[in-house]
Amino acid sequence: MKLVLAMMKHETNTFSPIVTDWARFEAWGLYTGQAAIEAYAKTNMPLGVYLNLAKEYGAEVVLPMAAEAMPGGKVTADAYKRLTDPILEAVRQGCDGCLLDLHGAMVAEGTDDGEGTLLEQIRRIAPDLPIAVTLDLHCNLTPKMVENCTALIGYKTYPHVDMDVVAGQVGRVVMEFIAGKRPKPAMALRQLPLLSQTLCQGTDDEPMKSAIQACRNEEARGLPCASVFGGFALADFKDAGTTVITVGNDQQQADAAADAIAAQVWDKRDQHVYRHRDLAESVAKAKQIKDGPVILLDHADNCGSGGTQDVMMVIEEVLRQGLEDVAVGAVWDPEAVQIMQKAGVGATVTLELGGKTDMPSLGLKGRPLKLTGKVRTITDGEWIVRGPMYNGYKVMMGPTAVLEVDGRMQIVVVSRHHEPWDTGVFTSVGIDPQHKRYLLLKSRIHYRAGFAPLARATFTLDGEGVTTSDNSKLKYEKLRRPIYPLDRINDWQQ
Asked: pTM (2 decimals)?
């Protein structure tokens, strides 16, 4: 038996000014062939599970591409071709099955449905090839994706700490089909007219908690796979939004489960809308908390959803109100890092920090913040994740430095975008987060993977940025309408 394994992952924020080119994939981690096998074999990511599954079945493995980039704007046509061509060529050489680790929200130049287009191209080469697909909970699932694979599944956790579990689940379904141990799976897609906010998709909270439980209940009753995709609202294309997908032993089973789960999700549609709060008032409330660490979330500038990671609005307000013992993870500013490297550890420097990026989609200009502080640490920005999300993966933040301002705030400044979902963003530069009073994180929900056990309290701070949770600030031109809550619709029928 011969299997083609591959990973191609990007969450595309079509409102982001960040260019997602080939270099951006190389910066995060791009591997081919044996190097890809070595990079992922000992991780808890889907590729690691697929490799173990192939070994269990005694299969020969071909791994032509394992690539991921931090979220940003559209993937360039050149990068998309360079990502997909090796996968298509591997399939063209012949195989018995294909196990894919995709994201589900890739928009590229030339196709708004990056994953669906890849799967469609694979199907043209091998119309009957068994294909398993693992997708992110923030997948904008399209009919094209469903029509061109054998079975697919999404993560049931946000933060995504179950990537290995769901990959094993869908991988085994398809491997058993290849081995003749089960009939061809049947799938049922339900696309809801709902544009859910990412901040409302934490799976420890409602409404996603009960939606995920509904999926687990169906699986406990014998359904092979059930998934709810919260979707990714920061992508302006037709199929953005919330979906339900079930994989059944037959069509009747799949349809019944999909209908039941979708109805439950729709009934709680109002809970998918984030309500904003005044920034100054939220910071003032946080200041009253005496015991730390207190988590401060600068969620509108989350590079994990395509943010520029250099908006200084929230940091400026925290400094203005005099909060003390604050650690910030992290600000993207390669120029500032170079200045601190040249000055050296212990030097006092004055920087125009952050604010290097304009955001035309919001009509915002980059606005640096002038700060004077001491250079505390300089590193290469490389460390290994030891927490539950991306465990075993090597993070490369690029040259990194810590700027200490007024003895009150330590700012981790990085040369490559990285969302702080693991405490390594601090410990790798000599900061112990559990002993800080405040941890200001440019994150939404993923921070919980590494920081939730430390938090005494958490405040969501509504600043500016292209990962805003206020959809009214975004100009949608391709999105299907009507859709809730942009349109106040109350009735829905698939």
From this structure: 0.94
